[in-house]
Each structure stands twice: as structure tokens, then as C-alpha cells.
Structures
1.
Amino acid sequence: MQLFYSHASPYARKIRLLLRELKLESRIAEVLADPLANEPGFLALNPLGKIPCLVMEDGESLYDSDVIAQFLLELAGEHGLFLGGERRWHWEKLHSLGCGLMDSAVALRIEKTKPAEQQSPLWGERHRQALGRGLAYLEVEWPTVPPGVHMIALVAACVLAYLDFRHPDIAWRDGCPRLAAWFAEFSARPSFQDTRPA
Ligand SMILES: N[C@@H](CCC(=O)N[C@@H](CS)C(=O)NCC(=O)O)C(=O)O
């Protein structure tokens, strides 16, 4: 099987972290890809032209990152990483919050890379505000989140690392001391070190 990824993509990093945490690296080859290159072979695998994209043993491709994550969890026989139990819907919401933060951070990056005259102050500010409110909520909720490796932790770690990488001006640690303390510990994991943006 193959996983198409780029170093900078936080969505791809989430999957690369999961591969390592599930010890599936030997079954899936990682293939560096540039989605903006519009390479026909890649577009045939994912008509959306996005990474991550996984090619399964039978040659069929899978996207997006949440579908790939579910496939990998089933492959590894590990069903506990999407938290369940009495608070299941709360955990699902926090997972969605992390995914939404990722979307806002990537959208803000896209906004910043446009030529100045094409940038939208309105949308730039809207993404920044969503990030600010979402991080503040996650900071308050974080003590209730179970320790260990699960999808909420993987998504949060990839978002926070991406903010450091692409938006250091946001200085997220200033308002999020609990997340900062957790992130300092989590980011020492070999899976995280091994997937740092090159
Ligand atoms: N919802 C998708 C988002 C994937 C995504 O937007 N990937 C970006 C890289 S960070 C990409 O490939 N962008 C290229 C494009 O939008 O054309 C997922 O979770 O996999």
C-alpha cells in the first residue's frame, strides 16, 4: 500500500503519526507528492488533487484523512482511538473542533500566500478569529480529555505544530498554557519527531 503525503500538510502528518503509532509502517510505503503539480497519475487516484491519499492493496484509493484514519484503525484492529463511552458525542465534537482548527489554519496559510492585492482582510480575520475561539475552547476542555494517544490528541498535536510552522505570529502558547504543557510532552514522541516538516 502507498500513502501520498507532503511534509507540510497537517492532514498528512496526522496519518503519518497514526501509521507509526499503530506500527503499520512496514505495510505502507510513504510517497512524497506535490498536489499542486497536478500530476495525472495522482489526479487519477484523487480527483480532488489533495493529500493525504492512500492506495490500498487492491489498488483502490482512499481519501480524505478521516476515512484513511478509519481504514488504518480497522487494519490494525484498534478501535479505541476514536474515544467512546458516555461522553462519546463530546469527544466527537472535540475531534471535529481539532479538524476545523486545521482547516482554518490551512485556509489562513493559503490567504497569506496570495499576492497582496488578492488577499481578503475579511477572510483572513475570520480564520484568525475562528482559530482564537477554537483554541480557547480546547484549552478549557483539555483537562477533561483522557491522557494517551487517540484521535483528538493526534489532531491537536498536528494543528499546534502547524501553527508553529506556518503562523508563529499567532503565538498560541500565550493563551493556552495547558495545551502548551501537553504539547511539549507529546511532541517528544518518536512518531512526532519522525514526521517533522523537513
Ligand atoms: N479534508 C481533507 C483536506 C486535505 C487537504 O486540504 N490537503 C491539502 C494539503 S494541506 C492539499 O492537498 N491541498 C491541495 C489543493 O487543495 O489543491 C483531508 O482531511 O484529507
Note: The longest strand covers residues 2-5.
2.
Amino acid sequence: MSRVIDKSNPLSLERKAEPPSDAATPAYQTYFEDEQKRVRLYLGDCLDVMGAAPEGCVDLIFADPPYFLSNDGITCYAGKMVSVNKGKWDRSKGFDQNFRFTTEWLAACQRVLKPNGTIWVSGTHHVIHLVGVAMQWLGYKILNDITWEKPNPPPNLSCRYFVHATETIIWAAKDRKSRHHFDYQLMKKLSGDRQMKSVWRIAPPNGFEKRYGKHPTQKPEALLDRIILASSRPGDLVLDPFCGSDATGVSAVRHGRKHIGIEMSKEWLDAARKRLLDELGKKQQMHVGDMDG
Ligand SMILES: C[S@@+](CC[C@H](N)C(=O)[O-])C[C@H]1O[C@@H](n2cnc3c(N)ncnc32)[C@H](O)[C@@H]1O
């Protein structure tokens, strides 16, 4: 059966997506959007959604792509030995295919970024070096590599490696001509009036952040708060092409940014929708409160 690509810009919250044709399976579909058009979630492949969008329509991207680490190893969780596997989406397909996929989605992100827009990509050593090479090959300008340090990492069961206690997050501008936005003063203030360093010690998501489902690679809201505050302005559009349970969306709403999330699993979109509704509800209450006051 042929797949239909929606021709209206899927990365615009103002424009209504065309209804999918009955004759064929749509390549992606809107899973959730709020009435005030601040957020939209798509069910589908991020390459299809970004491929249908025009160039230069997104201010900021946070991407937490597959890690390619679910290859039947073991790890430690809550003191027990468990499989490291996170899902089929996370299996390695071999170096060539992993690199091709990484280059494809990074090229799609670069195309939809505005000229001064920036992208953040997180990952472990299984994927982040591929990301760095692909970014340089595509002509992105790398701005920083942040080391996210986890305060209480699980022990290394094999005792043949150091404890894995960090992830890397690369921050890059669309190209060398970009004049990227950085809220230097706010970051300095958050850092006790000293320039903020590129090592960030932030706890993993707590039980409350996982109340609607435990995504195996869920990011803490505090990490996204810092990223969004550092590199976007109120009203900007923040895209997450691999949104999972959508810490990015929650943080975007919290700080008055618009958001589009893309995810190919309904299970995680359901958790994301519930989290977004809670956060949008808080905003609504704040607004009513403001009027009362
Ligand atoms: C590393 S996880 C992201 C977790 C997310 N940052 C969170 O806080 O919950 C990657 C997610 O990307 C999704 N995914 C993998 N390939 C995809 C694709 N081509 N298009 C859209 N989503 C994809 C997976 O289902 C998975 O939930």
C-alpha cells in the first residue's frame, strides 16, 4: 500500500495538518495537539515528518536518538542484574547502517533549523562519536560538548571497566555562518555568579517524572530546563524528533516555548500526552490565577 506524505507544513503549529487520505496509509499522524496550538505530537518516523517540512522553520532541536546499545549485554538496575536491552528501536544495525541513519536524520534536522537555530544531541559512547563525525561532515558548527554527570550511576557488574557515569550532549549551530543565541547571563546566575562549566551534575528523572510510564532512556526535566533556557527565547519552536515520553515538551511548555514532538511508539506518546496535559493544566491555572490577582 502506498504511503501518503502530508503536504502542509507539519512543523507549523498554526497550520492545520491535512486529513489523511482514506485510500492509503498516512506516513505519520497527529497524535495530540492542544487547543491553543502550543504543542503537537506526531506518531511516525521523524524522517517522514521533517522531510515534509520546508527549510528553516525550527528555532531549537533536542534529539535523543537510538543509542545502538541494545545488543544483549547486561547491566545493573535497582541492585539486580538485568538485560541492557531497551527495545527493538535501539539495536545496532552495524556500523554502515547506523552511520547512514545518523547522517540522514542529522541532515533533516539541519535543513529544518532556522539559520541561527541550534541543536543538542545526547548519547553514550555507542552513538555520540558517530553523531560528532556526521555533524562535522554535514557542516554543522560544534559549540560545546556537555558532559552530563549522573550522581548515583549503577555499579559496573563485570569489574572490567570504570563505572559509566556520564552521557555527552553535543550542542551545535546550523553552520559556520550562524549567530546562535546563548543566554549567558542567566546561565551565569544559575551557576552562582560564575561562568557555567560544560560539566553538568544532574540527577536522573525521579518517580514523579515517570508517573505515566518508565521510558528506559528518559531524560530528566532539569536537563531540558537548562538546555531550553540557555538556547531559546519565549515563543520559540522547540522540536524533538525522538521525543519518547517527552521531557523536552514538558520543559518547553513550562518555559513558554512552542513544541513539536515526534515518536514512533504509541506507548511513549501516551505517556508524553499525559505529561503535557498536566503541564499545560498548570499553565492554565497560573493564567486564571493571574487574572484573579
Ligand atoms: C533515546 S529514546 C528518547 C527518550 C526521550 N528523550 C525521553 O525523555 O523519554 C529514543 C526514542 O526514539 C524513538 N524512535 C526511534 N527511531 C525513531 C524514528 N525514526 N522516528 C521517530 N521516533 C523514533 C524510540 O521509540 C524511542 O522512544
Note: Helices lie at 46-51, 95-112, 128-138, 184-190, 221-231, 247-254, 266-292.
3.
Amino acid sequence: MTSASVAVIGGGVIGASAAYHLAARGWRDVLLLDRGAGPGEGSTGRATGGFRAQYATPINVRLSLLSREKLGCFEAETGVDPGYQAAGYLWLAANASELATLRAGQAVQHAEGLHEAVEVGCGDIARLNPALRLDEVAGGVYCPTDGFIRPLQMLQGYLDACRRLGVRIEWGVEVLGLSRRADGTIAAIQTSRGPVGVGAAVNAAGAWAAVVAGWAGWELPVVALRRQVAVTAPSDLLPHTMPMTIYAGDGFHLRVRDGRVLLLWPTPGVPGHPYDVRVEPEWIAAVTAKAHARVPVLRRASIDSAACWGGLYEVSPDKHAVLGPVPGCNNLFLVNGSSGHGVMHAPALGQLLAEIMSDGTAKTLDPTPLRPSRFVEGDLNPVPELL
Ligand SMILES: Cc1cc2nc3c(=O)[nH]c(=O)nc-3n(C[C@H](O)[C@H](O)[C@H](O)COP(=O)(O)OP(=O)(O)OC[C@H]3O[C@@H](n4cnc5c(N)ncnc54)[C@H](O)[C@@H]3O)c2cc1C
């Protein structure tokens, strides 16, 4: 039987960040496994690449600020440009109640040091994004240091840095189960290439994380949720510097990437088929109608059906990440449930996980709100209403 000091299950951006940060802290014999044929076959390759620190809870703001700091030295650390572009995030409220929720989130952000996040009136909004129709907009919030990142470049950076530090990376290997000792700890992982003896394992299986946790007897409440993306044909109707623009009421948002406009609007997945990522023509028609009503210039853009795609969020009950050892199986570590924020938080989560696994706790910031046991304790983070 082959062996590893630690096996990271899942080679998306979070698993790669975890493996890199472990190796950088001196862990040797780290093994990163993914059943995909190569990088980016999971959610990381489907992400649109938004980055924001405008969240409504202190822990999410802190994760973003730590990630932003790490993005600043990402290229020096890994050799790859993470593509951070401070184009801003502009949230729009349709009425006083939505605006009050955005303001409450901003109070949390200011308390955490995100002072550049500001409230904006319709005049500011017209300046920040002149393409918008404003008759249904009551106001909004804006943060200029939010913006964009390149998910696949971040994944590549961590994989390159992993290789330089001696991490073994194996594609096309499916993890099929775990062998546990009488005390509940993991002795080995079962894979499609045979068993691997391990000192510890990391569950970085994204939208499939509940399956892995289940092998250790832990019911991890992380579910897959489809997100669809409508993509226009290339055009210069909107500038690439346009901020990510989000309608707080229904979550419709848009951005420009590589000369195309991406349109998103969260809807439920396919009932009974949580891993189905098909893009539905009716959804494309509905999101396009929203875009035409709110951003009239897009009436001149055509949707490129072949370029539209679907992918999976990995959603926890309080829409916050799950980080730390599994209760009752203390050498299986979870870094799951980022609920659609996993690329932007990957730098922070990888570092915090490595601290927890090396020192028993994270010192850079207090990860208590993310502990796995919060679900059984009934001590969930406040579920964000809009942010
Ligand atoms: C449409 C869309 C837009 C998004 N936009 C953003 C955004 O703007 N900003 C942002 O931060 N996030 C965004 N996300 C969310 C982001 O993609 C995820 O949060 C993030 O990629 C999670 O990273 P991960 O490494 O945990 O998951 P993944 O990238 O899915 O990696 C998990 C890996 O585990 C592997 N795996 C699973 N089970 C096994 C097994 N048994 N054996 C071996 N391998 C296994 C899979 O093959 C997969 O590669 C978006 C997601 C979607 C779908």
C-alpha cells in the first residue's frame, strides 16, 4: 500500500490552496487527488471570477480581507498572476427595505475595516455604471476594491507552487471510501488506484463534499446547487472596467469578461437532480429579458447559446464555509461549503486550514464561526438576506 502524510481529496482551487499552504508550512509527502482528467473540471472551472469583501457577517468580511491581502502577493508566491482587477462591486436596492439591508451589511464591513465601501445615490450609480436604467433603483452600495479574479489562473498558481514544494498531484484518481480505526480516525483512503495509507485527509471535494464526509460518519449539510450563466457574443457595448453590478432584490447580476457580457440570476436547480448543470432555454430567455429591461443597451447584444454554461455552488445551511476537523474523526479536515464564494476565499481558507492542521488552531483569524459542529449545536451564522 502506498502512503502519504496527508491526502487532499479534490484538486479544485480550495484543495490546491490547502495542499500548497500545508507544504509551505513544512508538511512533506502531501498527496493531492482528483478524479477529473485535469485541472478545473469541478466548480472552479465554472466560476465567473467575482471578488468581494462586501459581506454581511464579520467572518466573511475577514476571509475576504485576508484573501485580498494574499492576492497582493499571489504572483510572488506562486509565479502566476491571479488576475485581481479592482473594478468594484455595485449593489442596487429597489426600495427602502433593500437599502436598509445593504446599509446594515455596510456597518459590519466598516467595523471590520472596509472603510472604502460606501453608500451611493442614483447620481453616483449613473456615473459608476451609465448603462443602467435607474427608474427602479432607490440607491445602493459600492466598494471600489471589490472586483474580479481569474479562477483558473489561481488554481494554476497553487498547482505550480505545490509541484515546486514536492506535492504529488494525481488526476484521474477517484476516492471511493475511507478506512477507519476503532477510535474513528482514518487509517487509509480507498481510491480507484488502490488504498493509500494516510496520517490525515482533507475533504476539498466541493459540491461533492457531503459524500466524502459521510464515509467518516459525519452528516455534512452541504448541497449542490446549480447556477446558470448566459453569455453574449463578443461586443464592446459595455466596458471591461464596468463594476460587477448586482440587483439585491432578485440577485440578477452582470459583468464583462473577455469582451462578453455574463448574465446571472439565481434560480432553483433541477428538482431531484442536484448535479444536473444543464442550461435551460427558458432561463436564458428570462435572464435576457431582465437584462434588456435593466440595461437597455444589451438589446443590441445577442446571446451565444453555445457559450452559456452551468455549474454547481456548494451550499451550507448558513451559506458560510465549513472549516476544521470532523468531530469524532479528528484527522479528517473539512474545507467545504463556501456557498459560491470559494474561489475568492480559497487563499484565506487554505492558509487557515494549514494553521489548524499544524497548530491545532488558526492564529491569523478566529475560525470559530466556521466550525463543523455549529450545525449540530444549532449555532449557525446569520444567513445573509441579500449580501
Ligand atoms: C456559475 C458559477 C459562478 C461562480 N462564481 C464565483 C465567483 O464569482 N467567485 C467565487 O469566489 N466563487 C464563485 N463560484 C463558486 C466557486 O466556483 C466555488 O466556490 C469553488 O470553485 C469551490 O472550489 P472547490 O475547490 O471546493 O471545488 P471544485 O472546484 O469543484 O473542486 C472539487 C474537486 O473535487 C473533486 N472530487 C469530488 N469528489 C471526488 C472524489 N470522490 N474523488 C476524487 N476527486 C473528487 C472534483 O473532481 C473537483 O475537481 C461560482 C460557481 C459557479 C458554478
Note: The mean pLDDT is 97.
